[in-house]
Design brief:
- The chain is an alpha/beta fold.
- It is about 40% helix and about 15% strand.
- The strands form 2 sheets. It has an 8-stranded mixed sheet, with helices on both faces. It has a 4-stranded antiparallel sheet with strand order 6-7-9-8, covered by helices on one side.
- A hairpin with a 4-residue loop joins strand 6 and strand 7.
- Bound molecules: magnesium ion.
- The site of magnesium ion (MG) has 7 residues, from loops.
- Pfam families: Trehalose_PPase.
- It comes from Miscanthus lutarioriparius.
C-alpha cells in the first residue's frame, strides 16, 4: 500500500514575533516545509513545532512595531502607491493580469466571517479594473461564497486556496479566451467526502469553545478563532489536532485568526496563479505582468511564484496588505483595503490615459 503523503504544517510564525528571528529560524530548521514524513499523524502534529504560540504570532492582537523597525521594513517593501510609476513602467509591452485576495484585501477583517462584505465603491473599483485587465479573485473561501460577496460575473474565481477554479460566467468577458471561459479545475475533488466528514467532526468538537466558528470551504475547512478568548486558543488547537490525527491525508495550516485544514496535495495560491496565467494564454512569461495583492500567509505562495518569475526583470508584482511589518516575499505593500482601492483606481486611470494618448498619436 502506498505510504500516505503527510505534509508538515507551516509552522513558523507569521509575522515573526519581535525579537524572535533566531527562534523562528531554529523552528524552521527543525520542522522545514512540505517535508514528506511518512510517519503519520504523530509527525504531522508534532506538538513542539506547532501550537498556541504559533497561533499568537500569526494573529497579532497588538503588533505595534517601533518606528525604526517599520521604516526599515518600508524600505524593503515600499508602498505600491508611492512606487506606482515604477510598477506601471514595468508593464511596458506587457499585459497586466490582476490577482486579488478577498478577506483583508478587498474587505475588512471583521469578527463574523459571514459578514465580511465589500463596499459598493470597492466593487465598482474591481469592476473597472476587470474592464481593462483580466482579473481573478483568489481566496481561501469556497468559490460560491466568495462569488456571493464579490458578485461580479466577469471575473475568474479561485476558491479554497486555488483548489476550485472557474472562468468568468459572463459570456461577454472581453479577456476570456474560449479555453479560459469554460475552465473549471478542481485538483482535490477526491477529497470532498473526507472534507465533509472532517467539517462535521470539527463543528462537534469545537462546540464547547465560545466564539469558535467552523466554516466548510468545500475543499478545505476553516476554524476561525478571531472571537475566541486568547486563553482558549490552546484548547482549540488541541481539539483540531485531535481530529486531524485520524486524517493523515489532510494537513493543517494557519492564517490570520484562522486554522485551516486542507488536502495534503502540492497545490496552493501560487499554483493557482500559474494555472490561470496558462489558461489565459500567458504561459510565455515575457508578455505578461501579473500583479497579486493579498494580506495573508497563504498569499505568500503566490508572492514566491512572482519573485521566482521576476528575478529582477519586472515579470511579476507582489503586494502585501499590512499595517505592520511582516516577513514577506512581496515586493511592495499597501496598508489596508482603502489603499488597495486607491491603487486599483489609479491603475484604471493610468490605463484610460494611456489609451487616450495612443489614440492621439
Ligand atoms: Mg486575506
Amino acid at each position: 500500500m502506498a505510504k500516505p503523503s503527510v505534509v508538515v504544517p507551516e509552522v513558523f510564525p507569521y509575522p515573526p514575533p519581535r525579537g524572535a528571528g533566531i527562534a523562528a529560524a531554529v523552528v524552521r530548521r527543525k520542522c522545514g516545509l512540505q517535508v514528506e514524513l511518512g510517519a503519520g499523524a504523530a509527525g504531522l502534529l508534532g506538538g513542539a513545532c506547532w501550537g498556541v504560540e504559533s497561533m499568537r504570532a500569526s494573529s497579532p492582537t497588538h503588533a505595534k512595531a517601533v518606528d525604526e523597525e517599520r521604516a526599515a521594513w518600508m524600505v524593503r517593501h515600499p508602498s505600491a502607491l508611492g512606487k506606482f510609476e515604477q510598477i506601471v513602467a514595468a508593464s511596458e509591452g506587457k499585459r497586466i493580469v490582476m490577482f486579488l485576495d478577498y478577506d483583508g484585501t478587498l474587505s475588512p477583517i471583521v469578527d463574523d466571517p459571514d459578514a465580511a462584505f465589500m463596499s459598493e465603491t470597492m466593487r465598482m473599483a474591481v469592476r473597472s479594473v476587470a474592464k481593462h485587465f483580466p482579473t481573478a479573485i483568489v481566496s481561501g473561501r469556497c468559490r460560491d461564497k466568495v462569488f456571493e460577496f464579490v458578485k461580479l460575473a466577469e471575473l475568474y474565481y479561485a476558491g479554497s486556496h486555488g483548489m476550485d477554479i472557474k472562468g468568468p460566467a459572463k459570456a461577454s468577458s472581453r479577456h476570456a479566451k474560449a479555453k479560459a471561459k469554460g475552465v473549471v479545475f478542481q485538483p482535490a475533488s477526491e477529497f470532498l467526502p473526507m472534507i465533509e466528514e472532517v467539517h462535521e467532526r470539527l463543528v462537534e468538537t469545537t462546540r464547547c469553545i465560545p466564539g469558535a466558528k467552523v466554516e466548510n470551504n468545500k475543499f478545505c475547512v476553516s476554524v476561525h478563532f478571531r472571537c475566541v478568548d486568547e486563553k482558549m486558543w490552546g484548547e482549540l488547537s488541541e481539539s483540531v489536532k485531535g481530529v486531524l490525527r485520524e486524517y493523515p491525508k489532510l494537513r493543517l495550516t494557519q492564517g490570520r485568526m484562522v486554522l485551516e485544514v486542507r488536502p495534503a496535495i502540492k497545490w496552493d495560491k501560487g499554483k493557482a496563479l500559474e494555472f490561470l496565467l496558462e489558461s489565459l494564454g500567458f504561459a510565455d512569461y515575457s508578455n505578461v505582468l501579473p500583479v497579486y495583492i493579498g494580506d495573508d500567509r497563504t498569499d505568500e505562495d503566490a508572492f514566491k511564484v512572482l519573485r521566482r518569475r521576476d528575478q529582477g526583470q519586472g515579470q511579476g508584482v507582489g503586494i502585501l496588505v499590512s499595517k505592520h511589518p511582516k516577513e514577506t516575499t512581496a515586493s511592495y505593500s499597501l496598508q489596508e483595503p482603502a489603499e488597495v482601492m486607491e491603487f486599483l483606481l489609479r491603475l484604471v486611470e493610468w490605463k484610460r490615459l494611456s489609451r487616450a494618448r495612443l489614440r492621439l498619436q
